Amino acid sequence: MPPICARAIRFQGKSRVKNQRRRVLKSLAASLCAPAFAWAQSPQAPIKLAMIEGLSGGNANGGEAVFRNLVWAVERVNERGGVKLPGGARRLALERYDSKGQIEEALSTLRSAIDDGAQFILQGNSSAVAAALIDAINKHNEREPARRVVFLNYSAVDPILTNEKCSFWHFRFDAHADMRMAALMEVLREDRGVKSAYLIGQDYSFGQAVLREARRQLGAQRPDVQIVGDELHPLMRIKDFAPYAAKIKATGADAIITGNFSSDLTLLVKAAREAGFDGKFYTFYGNALGAPAAIGDAGAGRIVAVADWLPNVPTPQSEAFYQAFRQRYPKPADDYVHMRMQLMIEALAQAVEKAGSVDAAAVATALEKVTVSFHGQRGAMRAADHQFQQPLVVGMMDRQGTPGVKFDVEGSGYGFRVIKTIQPGMAEMPSTCKMARAG
Question: Does one domain contain both 167 and 206?
Fold first, then answer.
């Protein structure tokens, strides 16, 4: 700031100006230093967060559900005064960009978000999109160090993202697919009623990773289980899963293992129910976005889901957290809450405060060491690969009101009781990441 502007700001607010020198100074400053006065008098600019997500297309409900979670988390930070920095507290500002679930659209919206001043990129509902964003952000940050950004991933769980494709600028707050599969296997290993399994998933990087790990872990932990089917289907393009359900039914499978989500899960479940499949579903996402209502009573005692947290985790802190979310979003259709998304925003706020700035490299360095606790849930970022380490829970679907099912899902009358809790040390898996840190 020019010296004349600084002196004028110091004089601003005086009740009387006693000499001509001060009057001249203030007059001159008014014409030459208006931006400086605005800076001195206005609050700090908000810290911009850009959510890049499919808000139209086959997984639009998933994108909107994530947005509600992030809005709630940002509101909480802002209600307590924002993020504390040396120059004054700054609020978080969440902006949304529709990728339509497509890679090229996501890359285009990334450029728009950065041009709009976004400093943190949030995405998760596609591992293929996440992989493309990692590559693009790596190149952008190298090319334009003055405008570097950090990528916070809340749901893209292909293990490659924190292994071969690990990046200093990317942080994953969800357990990756191999970790989730290991948690499911903790239950399936003891389920002696399962003698045969049908593996089915979406034909892209995440779905392929789920089936690959299912085969590996079944071979290691339940070699007696026969794999009677193993297939991939187009992502978010199947409208009628009846042919798939008929094949599954014909094999006599005792269980279906799938990483499917959104309509690919609910349509599969509906078709299997209509085909008369009476086995179990071991799922990554069977606990939300229409699946419980689609399954109905046939899912009681049969649908298994793994998550970082479930509404029926039996602690007072967990119950208070869930009740607060339902107060914020009372409509049953909006009942989609994930603890990890709340932990992610809390971790970001903590890292920015520790870094003392929003400089991407400084915040990334602080994020590597972050440990965050919230409503009884505790997690820590692993610096070696930027994979968040946290407890996992496995739930069994049952009617609301049965022991362990105080809360249902989306007004369906069905919820998930916790049948297994896996502590961070047990959920942790090795990484092949060779991190190249910012210079």
Answer: no
Helix (H, G, I), strand (E, B) or coil at 148: coil
Distance separating alpha carbons of residues 39 and 213, to the nearest angstrom: 55
Overall number of domains in the chain: 3
Contact 77, 83 (CB under 8 A): yes
Task: Classify residue 298 by its DSSP letter.
Answer: G
- 389: which 2 tokens? 């380490």
Question: pLDDT by residue (tens digit) across 368-403?
Answer: 999 999 999 999 999 999 999 999 999 999 999 999
One domain for residues 75 and 141: yes
CA atoms of 201 and 197, how far apart (whole Å): 13
Coil, strand, or helix at residue 288? coil
246 shares a domain with 136: no
Each residue of 149-182: pLDDT tens digit? 999 999 999 999 999 999 999 999 999 999 999 9
Of 8-12, 107-111, 150-154, 241-245, the poorest mean pLDDT is in 8-12
177 and 163 in contact (C-beta within 8 Å)? no
